[in-house]
Structure formats: C-alpha cells, structure tokens
Amino acid sequence: MQETNDDIQRIYEDPRFKELVAKKSGFANLLSVIILGAYFAFILLIAFDPKLLGIPVVEGSPITWGIPMGVGIILLSFLLTGVYTLRANGEFDNLTKEVLSEVQK
Amino acid sequence: MIARAVLATALLAASSALLAGEAMTGEVQKQATNWTAILMFLAFIVGTMGITKWAAKRNTSTSDYYTAGGGITGFQNGLAIAGDYMSAASFLGISALVYSSGYDGLIYSIGFLVGWPLILFIIAERLRNLGKFTFSDVASYRLGQTEIRLLSAFGSLVVVAFYLIAQMVGAGKLIQLLFGLDYMVAVVLVGVLMIVYVFFGGMLATTWVQIIKAVLLLSGASFMAFMVLKSVNFDVVKMFSDAIAIHPKHDAIMAPGGLVSDPISAISLGMALMFGTAGLPHILMRFFTVADAREARKSVFYATGFIGYFYILTFVIGFGAILLVMTNPEFKDAAGAIVGGTNMVAVHLASAVGGNVFLGFISAVAFATILAVVAGLTLAGASAVSHDLYACVIKGGYTKDGGRATEDDAMRVTKITTLALGVVAILLGIIFEKQNIAFMVGLAFSIAASCNFPVLLLSMYWKDLTTRGALIGGALGLLTALVLTILSPTVWVDVLGNTSAIFPWKYPALFSVTTAFVGIWFFSITDKSKAAQEARAKFIPQFVRSQTGLGAAGASAH
C-alpha cells in the first residue's frame, strides 16, 4: 500500500486522529513527567540531603528509607512501562486501526 | 561558597567509582587456568556457532541482515535488549560497588534503568514507525540526507568506539581473571568471535546470542541471589543486619555514600544516563527487529522488567558477598585483600554458593556476556558505515528507491566494515590495556545524550527543525561533551595527570545537552532557506506516519 498526500491530509484532519494524538501524547507526557520527577527528586535528595535516606524505616531496623525508595523507583519503572504498553496496545491501537481503515478502504 | 566548592571537589574525588564499574578498571592478576569454565564456554561457542550458521542461511537481503527481517517478537526483543544492555562489567562492577559501599550500588543501577520508561514513552513507537535500519533513517526523514546522516553516523561511530574500547579492555582483564588466559589472547579471541557472529549471522545471530546470554545471566544471578537469601533463611532484615555487623563501614552501607555528591554533577550524571540510553545506536537499532509499534512497546516493557530484576539481583548478590565472601579467608590473599580485586566478589560468591562447577558456569556466562555486547556494538557500527554513509550518502540511496547502491554492494561494504571494526577493536583493546579508561563509558553516554538524542527527539517532535539547526546544534553538543570530558577531573587529572581540572564537574551532560538543544533551536528558527521550508512542510506526513505506522517498513516475508 502506498499512501498518497490525500490520505495523509485526510488522516491529519480526521477528528479521531486528533483524539488519538491528544490521548496518546497526554498519557505519554504524564508518565514521562512521573518517571523524570521521581528520578531527579531521588538524585537531588542524595545530592542535598543524603542522611535522610539513611534513616531507618522503623526505629532499630537495619532497613533505611533509601531501600524502599530505590527499589520503588525500579518497580515504578516496570509498572509504568506495563501500564503504557497495555493502554497503547489496546485502546490507542484500536483507535489507530479505525483511523487507518478510513484510507485503506 | 568557596568552602562549599572545595567540599564538592573533595566529594567528587571520592566518587570516581561511578561509571568506572562499567569499564572494569584497575590492575588485575592473572588466575590459574579454569578448565570447567573453559569447557562451559566452549559449549556456548559451539551452540552459538550453530545458530550463526542457521542465521547465515536465512540472511538473503540487507533487511534480513540488519533487522533479522523484522520478525523478532516483542518478548524475544525484550530479552535481547536486556542482553545487549547488561554488560559483564556491570554485573561484576555493580555487585563490587554494593560490596564495598552498599547503597551506592543501588543508586548506580537505578540511573541505568530509568532511561527505559522514557524510551518507551517518547521514542520507541515513533522510531519503529519511521525508521528502517538505523536511527539516522528517522533523524534524516525530512531533513538533508547527506548532512544529517553524516552527523548521526559520526555520532554513532564515536559512541560505538568509546563503548567498544571499554568493553574490549574489560573483556581482556576479565578473561585473564576468570580463565587464566593472556590479555592479548583474550582480546583477540573476543574480536574474532565477534566478527564471526556479525559477519556471517548479522542481526539474527546477534539477537539469539543476546537472548541466550540474557537467559544464562539472569538464571545464574537468580540462583546466586536465591542461595544468598537461603543462607539467611529468607530473612532480608537478617541479611542487612548481618552485613552491617560484618562490613567495616557498618551502618553507612545502608545510606548514600560519596558516590553522588554535588547537585550539578548529580543532575549531569542523571541526564547522561537517562538521555544517553535513548541515544545509544546499538540499542535504538534493536527496535527495527520487531514487526510494528505494538511489538516495539512490548520489547521495552519486557526489557525494563528483565533489567530491573537483574539490578535487584546484583544488589542482593553484593550483600551476599559481604556475608559469604568478606568473612571467608579462602577468597583473600596474604594481605587480606580480595583475590583478583574487588570486581571478583560476585565470582567468588558463585564459588561459595555453588562450588567449582557453578563458578565455571558464571565465568562462562561473563565471557558470553561480553561477546553479546560487543557483537551488538559492531553491528551498529557496521550499519552506520554501510547503510548511512555508503548506501545513503555516497550512493544516494538503494537502487529500488532510485539511488545507485545495490543490495549486494551494501552487503559487501557491511562485511568489510565488520572485519575492519573487529580488527580496530582488537588493536584498540591492545593499545588501551594499560590506560585509564574509566571515563569512556561515561563519555559514550554523554555524547549519545548530547548529539544523537537531541537530534532524534526534535526530528520527531519539533516541526520547525531544519537541517542547518540539527547539524550545527548536534555537532555543538558532541563537541561540548567531548571537550568538557577532556577538561573534567576524569581525564584532565586522572588520565593526563594535571593537579586540578579546568571543568570542575565529572559529567558534562547538563551543559552539553543544553548546548545541543539551544543550538538546534537557534540555528533552526533563524534558518530562512528554501530547504528549511521544505523540511517544515514535510512534518505533517512524517507526523501522521509516526503516529499511525502508515507506510512503515514491515516484517519481510518469512
């Protein structure tokens, strides 16, 4: 299939395409801000106040706040990629198929 | 203020371990020849050579060669990405860092992981929808082919070169340690095997070598972590308490040490790791091996899972080494230091929890790991030369698209380049044996973050990007990263032996990434040429394709 300029213009003006772009970009931006925020907050905390992460989670426990926070960022990364993949491969891809079906008829 | 700057510099001096772990630095002693390890490694070689032979038969076109025909599944690609990204030096280096400083090892791992979600959210699917073989395809999609391909091929080759040197030197030292082979023999062996995989098997063989290596490394590391936890009756609190009691730094190992100190270096390092991962050519290339955007997303999801899991394992392994290696005189020399250096603690732990056979297994896995990483790098370098420089720049494209490069010619150039890269890698490995290469992986990430990443990102997202802007801004980013690294403590003081650095921070990314973005922006908006208008006009078709996959290169028929 070779797409034509007409097809492209039609897709670009299709309200469903605009909806797809708005939803997908909004979601991707939100998740990017979450992971960037979490990581740089973590790094800045280490740079400005490293002692804070050395405080035990419970008085007398060897486990410090740094452990759940560090492991938390690893789990958060995995979780966010899962959430995005699930929504993009379902909802967004269905929307994409609808948009494309318009020009592939 | 001055006191603060002095303090920052002092702390920086203490943090030289960061990124160095990735490069396996320091003196190593050659160990006794380990026959179990050699036999296991031979089994790996025989298996992967079989795969290479099978792959060679299936490679009939350039698309097969560079992208495995686009037929790799998301799950397989996720494993292969993990195999491409988890280097032997990071396995040994991070566990060694945990062993010697505790919590700092975790900070280091997190930096290497957090780039992945970002790749998924902003890069992966647009890259897959727009590109064919290399990320330069995407960067040059609506810009001047010659200029942008030259820039991004150059960016790729520089990143590949520094990364490759670090891996080759690491490989030589590691194999000396694990197998008792000579440094020279080890480097030549790695170079030759890497050439064979890439030369004959292309992306298909490289992918399977990476998948097998990922599975072996993850299983080996899982077993070690399991045995460590078993030794404390699966009581994590006991594991930490015992480690605090044994370790000479005591409870300091549960808090950040001197690894990340002043805010500028911290942010700079964070930017290099996050954006650098999204600009590594051998990683970006992996997204063209899957059929579509859907599989590309799955690839990142699985890769993030595997890499994150691996880093958690190395943390446990590092603590396990404090419990089981630090206390065992068998692993220490007369002076009380770890036999073979601190980087060997994970290997000693393997012997402590699994005996000689498991030690052999882990050594063989470490060797396999090096091969998988260097094969991926070589393939990325070869594709930059043959696809970007030869076919697209010199010959003006492939014959089927109206250019003058035939598939056969492009393949021939690829194979010559692969051979040349292999020989160059061996030579560089030998030349840099005694050099301090701790800065090289950091430099590779900084350049990837300051040249490849801004150009790629803006080419997909910013309508007003022009060829002139991308070319000048990208080149400025690359140069800034290079010059500031040379002037930084890691090279100016540690390598060149000056007493104080001209650029006081260890990582240039904060400055060089900013320079790149500002440069690209300024030289784009002031560009009133006809070419600039054309590039802007092509944004809508590119945008539609990047969002929907309309007209994207699909899987080839088999």
TrEMBL record, chain A:
<feature type="transmembrane region" description="Helical">
    <location>
        <begin position="26"/>
        <end position="48"/>
    </location>
</feature>
<dbReference type="InterPro" id="IPR052959">
    <property type="entry name" value="Inner_membrane_assoc"/>
</dbReference>
<dbReference type="Pfam" id="PF04341">
    <property type="entry name" value="DUF485"/>
</dbReference>
<keyword id="KW-1133">Transmembrane helix</keyword>
<protein>
    <submittedName>
        <fullName>Uncharacterized membrane protein (DUF485 family)</fullName>
    </submittedName>
</protein>
<keyword id="KW-0812">Transmembrane</keyword>
<feature type="transmembrane region" description="Helical">
    <location>
        <begin position="63"/>
        <end position="86"/>
    </location>
</feature>
<dbReference type="GO" id="GO:0005886">
    <property type="term" value="C:plasma membrane"/>
</dbReference>
<keyword id="KW-0472">Membrane</keyword>
<dbReference type="InterPro" id="IPR007436">
    <property type="entry name" value="DUF485"/>
</dbReference>
Automatic annotation (TrEMBL), chain B:
<feature type="transmembrane region" description="Helical">
    <location>
        <begin position="183"/>
        <end position="204"/>
    </location>
</feature>
<dbReference type="GO" id="GO:0015123">
    <property type="term" value="F:acetate transmembrane transporter activity"/>
</dbReference>
<dbReference type="GO" id="GO:0015293">
    <property type="term" value="F:symporter activity"/>
</dbReference>
<keyword id="KW-0915">Sodium</keyword>
<dbReference type="GO" id="GO:0005886">
    <property type="term" value="C:plasma membrane"/>
</dbReference>
<keyword id="KW-1003">Cell membrane</keyword>
<feature type="transmembrane region" description="Helical">
    <location>
        <begin position="35"/>
        <end position="56"/>
    </location>
</feature>
<comment type="similarity">
    <text>Belongs to the sodium:solute symporter (SSF) (TC 2.A.21) family.</text>
</comment>
<dbReference type="InterPro" id="IPR018212">
    <property type="entry name" value="Na/solute_symporter_CS"/>
</dbReference>
<feature type="transmembrane region" description="Helical">
    <location>
        <begin position="211"/>
        <end position="229"/>
    </location>
</feature>
<feature type="transmembrane region" description="Helical">
    <location>
        <begin position="505"/>
        <end position="523"/>
    </location>
</feature>
<keyword id="KW-0997">Cell inner membrane</keyword>
<feature type="transmembrane region" description="Helical">
    <location>
        <begin position="105"/>
        <end position="124"/>
    </location>
</feature>
<keyword id="KW-0813">Transport</keyword>
<keyword id="KW-0769">Symport</keyword>
<feature type="signal peptide">
    <location>
        <begin position="1"/>
        <end position="20"/>
    </location>
</feature>
<feature type="transmembrane region" description="Helical">
    <location>
        <begin position="357"/>
        <end position="380"/>
    </location>
</feature>
<keyword id="KW-0739">Sodium transport</keyword>
<feature type="transmembrane region" description="Helical">
    <location>
        <begin position="77"/>
        <end position="99"/>
    </location>
</feature>
<dbReference type="GO" id="GO:0006814">
    <property type="term" value="P:sodium ion transport"/>
</dbReference>
<feature type="transmembrane region" description="Helical">
    <location>
        <begin position="264"/>
        <end position="288"/>
    </location>
</feature>
<keyword id="KW-0406">Ion transport</keyword>
